[in-house]
Amino acid sequence: MAEHERDTRLDGNAAAGLLSTVFRCEPSEVMLICAGCGADGPMGALLAYGMEMGAVLRCPVCDTAVLRAGSAGAMLWLDVRGAVSMRVTIEH
Amino acid sequence: MAGSFISRGFRGRRREDPAVAGRVPPGQYVTPDFPVLSAGPTPHTSPREWDFTLNGAVDPVRRWTWEEFRALPRDTVTVDIHCVTKWSKLDTVWEGVSLDTLFAGIEPRGAFVTAFCDGGYTTNLPLRDVLDGQAWIAFAYGEEPLAAEHGGPARLLVPHLYFWKSAKWVRGLTVTERDRPGFWESLGYHDYGDPWREQRYQGD
Amino acid sequence: MAGTAVPGRLAWQLASVAAKRQETPRVISLRLESDAWAGHLPGQHVDVRLTAEDGYQAQRSYSISSAPEPGVLELTVEDIPDGEVSPYLTEVLQPADRLELRGPIGGYFTWTAADGGPLLLVAGGSGVAPLMSMLRERAAAGSDVPTTLLYSSRSWDEIIYREELERLAADPTLRIVHTLTRSHPADWAGYTRRIDAAMLAEVAGALLPGSLAYVCGPTRLVEQVATDLVTRGYPPAAIKTERFGPTGG
Ligand SMILES: Cc1cc2nc3c(=O)[nH]c(=O)nc-3n(C[C@H](O)[C@H](O)[C@H](O)COP(=O)(O)OP(=O)(O)OC[C@H]3O[C@@H](n4cnc5c(N)ncnc54)[C@H](O)[C@@H]3O)c2cc1C
Ligand SMILES: [Zn+2]
Fold it and tell me: Is residue B112 very low, low, confident or very high in pLDDT (cuts 50, 70, 90)?
């Protein structure tokens, strides 16, 4: 059965265009710590699901939805409860 | 510039088909495919582990094993489904257990339900929208057991609302007194989601 | 922040189609020009947005296949039967038309000569597009980072950039290995199966310090190859992936 399943997941990178509305830096380079398991890595290394309705970025280790975005018409909604923290490099 | 630009010759997938005029809600196009939209990896729950629960503000809490669930009376329904991503699929044939059957003999003390699922997905609906022959727990599609990518072993089927309400991999309903936004509803999607009124997003 | 609007880092912009090239029977490349385009990093993509007269929109991502160059970018698009966006780009869009896009996007799946190697590039079908940007950049920079491209296509005629790859392979530090999964010429001596662990073991050789792997194509191929590379001892952080979704060869 799994053999015939369609592979809908993408890399976190695929959501970077959508999230560039929010982040001034390159979204796929934002570092996040997963609230589910503590895994630490760049947004680009998360797995992206549900791009048709927004973006659900999940931890590749434990599947926690680290960052969820909804493209709701004119508004982009964000839920980052799945991240302990986000960090970005300060540009000087 | 952006915003008023039109891509020369682009129409999208939509075809105007007079044969189905009136059957397709505004902004939707008809597709022969069955696209897959998932908010997470596809769970594979074996019938042995599967159960279905009605809990929350209900008396009594009820639970069915797969065998008990499959022994309940079943309906075969032919319905049109409408996804908020703008495709509609006509005359889809499902087999499932009506929620009227599951709620028989149960006293709900709230006006809303939250469907919960393997993988953590949730969606909220008014209780009255899942009763009176409007909703099923479907376990077969097109005379075949429901494929995992489409929500098998069982999914909620509420065809009169946008299809994200028809939660895949459903494992139960929690009755609540207040409407609690589910997975997409907490990300800007509409709490009710009537395709005929184009209730796609919060505020529509 | 404080009340003043920060100009969007990635605003939608209009590029014009300067040229269209047939790469294979099902794949074209589009050369796009835009004064606002500042160049890109090899591996990055753009989001393309199409708008119908009634306001209906469809949006997809496409990797940039050209080497970085201000004012110019190339996309390579495979025609997916029944697709919504790719048939428009391959069949309807013509030179002098305009296309709305935003980018360049992505800082994760990128490689420049300064990142070094050895470099292992693995592509399935149109997944070769961002890797081609890396190879073109590598050639333009005169880099001698030992590089291997393992490239899976359905048939000889469906190898995208075949002639350019042959020219690039004159460089002794670049090795290109094809596998043809559906049909192959009678005298074909190369691989004729999908990429698997045994093929990766033969092609990738010994894992050296600094090794980097970039894998791109249909989601299933990417996940299979990434898993096999981890098994071969590649540190997960040294494997960069770009899943194109369920489509593609
Ligand atoms: C970061 C990134 C970079 C990309 N770069 C390139 C590139 O350089 N070149 C390139 O050609 N493509 C690239 N792609 C893929 C591209 O974005 C499109 O997915 C592709 O062109 C198909 O789009 P479409 O509108 O033509 O097809 P769609 O309308 O999306 O449909 C394509 C076909 O697949 C089926 N399908 C669609 N969605 C699903 C689904 N969820 N489940 C099952 N079946 C489905 C449809 O029924 C149809 O038959 C990239 C994707 C990503 C994420
Ligand atoms: Zn985790």
Answer: very high
Q: Which residues of C touch A25 (CB under 8 A)?
A: 9
The residue with greater pLDDT, A84 or B20, is: A84
Could you tell me which residues are beta bridge partners of residue C75? C30, C64
Residue B3 lies in a domain: no
Look up tokens 């359905």; give the residue.
Answer: C154
What would the two tokens of residue B57 be?
A: 């503000």
Residue C1 has pLDDT above 70, yes or no: no
Mean pLDDT score, B80-96: 97
- pLDDT reading at B94 higher than 80: yes
Whether residue C237 sits in one domain with residue C162: yes
**Where in chain A are the domains?**
3-87
Task: Confirm if C130 and C114 have CB atoms less than 8 A apart.
Answer: no
Residue matched to tokens 């009255």 = B128
The single-letter DSSP state of residue C191 is: B
Q: Write down the pLDDT at residue C5.
A: 41
Quick one: closest CA in C to A27, which residue?
C106
The sheet carrying A40-42 orders its strands as: A40-42, A31-34, A83-87
CATH number of domain containing C15: 2.40.30.10
Strands C98-105 and C119-124: unpaired
Query: Residue with structure tokens 């009605």?
Result: B54
pLDDT digits (tens, 9 = 90+) for C107-164: 999 999 999 999 999 999 999 999 999 999 999 999 999 999 999 999 999 999 999 9
Tell if the CB–CB gap between C245 and A7 is shorter than 8 Å. Answer: yes
Residue B181 included in any domain: yes
Q: How far is CA C232 from the centre of its chain?
A: 24
Q: Which domain holds residue C62?
A: 7-105
**At CA B106, angle to CA B98 and CA B108, rounded to 5?**
100
State the nearest Cα–Cα gap between A52 and chain B, in angstroms: 7
Note whether residue B5 is domain-resident. Answer: no
Q: Domain for residue B1, yes or no? A: no
Segments forming the whole domain that contains residue B192 = 18-197
pLDDT average, residue stretch B27-54: 94
Instruction: Tell me if C193 is assigned to some domain.
Output: yes
Which residues in chain A have Cβ-Cβ distances shorter than 8 Å to C9?
Answer: 20, 23-25
Per the domain annotation, does C49 fall within a domain? yes
Cβ atoms of B43 and A2 within 8 Å: the answer is: no
ipTM: 0.93
Across the interface, whether the CB atoms of C50 and B12 are under 8 A apart is answered yes
Q: How far is A56 from chain B (nearest CA, A)?
A: 6
pLDDT category of residue A1 using cuts at 50, 70 and 90: very low
* Contact assignment for B2 to C88 by CB distance below 8 Å: no
Hey, whose CA ends up nearest to atom 45 of ligand 1? B35
Number of domains in chain C: 2
The tokens for C51 are 């708008």
**CATH number of the domain bearing residue B156:** 3.90.420.10
